[in-house]
Write a structure and sequence with these properties.
Radius of gyration: 22 Å
Order of helices and strands: EHEHEHHEEEHEHHEEEEEEEEEE
Structural class: alpha/beta
Largest sheet: 6 strands, antiparallel, barrel
Low-confidence stretches: none
Shape: globular
Number of helices: 7
Mean pLDDT: 93
CATH topology of the largest domain: Rossmann fold
Strand content: 25-35%
Distance between the termini: 58 Å
CATH superfamily of the largest domain: HUPs
Helix content: 10-25%
Oligomer: single chain
CATH class of the largest domain: Alpha Beta
Length: about 350
């Protein structure tokens, strides 16, 4: 009997091509469109068009398309956490939580109830089974690899998931979509935080959190400007500080180096080589190991501290409910609230939420 795989059909080109590959490989394929955000602003709402695009793909592939409303789950499990983190002046990554709680929990549960053997998505990643352990592997297209966003998955989730486009690059995905007659073959990739879309980030946050303006100070304590609210800024940020050229060295740009939450102050320094922007240690919490087993003491591992950062060799020097990580070379702009994700070559082994950074392990 054919295995039944239910794919999360977003309306984008990646999930569309993923569905076509599943059919080519002989699976019984069904599709589900997830509505995760209750959108009132029609100017930025893409859900209606996304559903139409998904429907056109399913018509061509001759597979059924269901729609499921997960807005309540998304609000409770993802968006509330995002807001709480922003209120603390941290830099959250809601896509990581969405994958864990929505796409690979709520959607997975729904699909299994419908009788699916597994679910599929259009993520650029791969899965390998080794010694009865399901491993999460980087996508072949290094520019599109999305394993970083999937590090919180566990064995029960990875073992029930399929990533059909993990061995393709984006160019080939678009080419295949065009050949199949999908109208979304040239559809723009979604970028940034999904529920904000093309909106102005600050204007969006103001709807939910009252901003608390305060001083921007230099590393020697001089007031050099005003910030609009610590939640709007992240570590290493250069643009949007509004610091006039009359402050400090007029030829050196300013960067956010610290947030003093208790005083509602933003600290800025000049030049991207300023030592306060670099740290060799960090502490992380909410640790998840995909295999259920932490790495061994002498295991060679690398880590990313943000999605687009390069892998850096590191070692975990203490391990409990939280971990301390030491990098072989100082890292620029480590941001509390973001995720640190660990790799053993191409295997994504897990990660956690960055809590603090320092230049010692004390």
């Amino acid at each position: 009997m054919k295995e039944t795989i239910i794919i999360g059909m977003s309306g984008g080109v990646d999930s569309a091509v993923a569905a076509s590959i599943l059919i080519e490989n002989g699976y019984n394929v069904e599709a589900v469109f997830m509505k995760n955000w209750d959108e009132e602003d029609e100017e930025f709402c893409t859900a209606t068009q996304d559903y139409k695009d998904a429907l056109q793909v399913c018509d061509i592939l001759d597979i059924p398309l269901r729609s499921i409303d997960l807005t309540n789950e998304y609000w409770d499990k993802v968006f509330k956490i995002f807001l709480e983190e922003c209120k603390k002046g941290r830099t959250p990554n809601p896509d990581v939580i969405c994958n864990k709680e929505i796409k690979f929990r709520a959607f997975l549960d729904y699909a299994l109830e419908l009788g699916a053997d597994k679910i599929a998505t259009g993520h650029y990643a791969n899965i390998n089974k080794h010694d009865n352990i399901f491993q999460l592997i980087r996508g072949k297209d290094s520019n599109k690899d999305q394993s970083y966003f999937l590090y919180r998955l566990d064995q029960s989730q990875v073992s029930k998931s399929v990533f059909p486009i993990g061995d393709l690059n984006k160019k080939n995905v678009r080419k295949k979509a065009d050949e199949l007659g999908f109208l979304n073959h040239n559809k723009k990739d979604s970028t940034g935080i999904c529920f904000i879309g093309e909106r102005n980030y600050r204007n969006f946050l103001k709807k939910f959190i009252n901003p608390q303006p305060g001083d921007i100070v230099s590393d020697n304590g001089d007031v050099i400007g005003q910030h609009e609210g610590l939640m709007y800024y992240t570590y290493g940020q250069r643009q949007g500080l509004g610091i006039g050229g009359g402050c400090g060295n007029k030829d050196a740009p300013w960067y956010v180096s610290e947030k003093i939450i208790s005083e509602n102050r933003l600290v800025a320094v000049q030049g991207n080589e300023h030592p306060s922007l670099y740290h060799s240690f960090l502490t992380a919490s909410n640790i998840n190991w995909i295999s259920g087993i932490p790495p061994t003491k002498n295991q060679n591992i690398t880590a990313k501290i943000r999605y687009r950062s390069k892998d850096t060799a590191c070692k975990i020097i203490t391990q409990s409910d939280s971990i301390i990580v030491e990098f072989n070379a100082p890292k620029f702009a480590i941001a509390p609230g973001q995720s640190i994700v660990f790799y053993n070559n191409d295997i994504c082994i897990g990660g956690g939420i960055i809590e603090s950074r320092s230049n010692s392990n004390n």
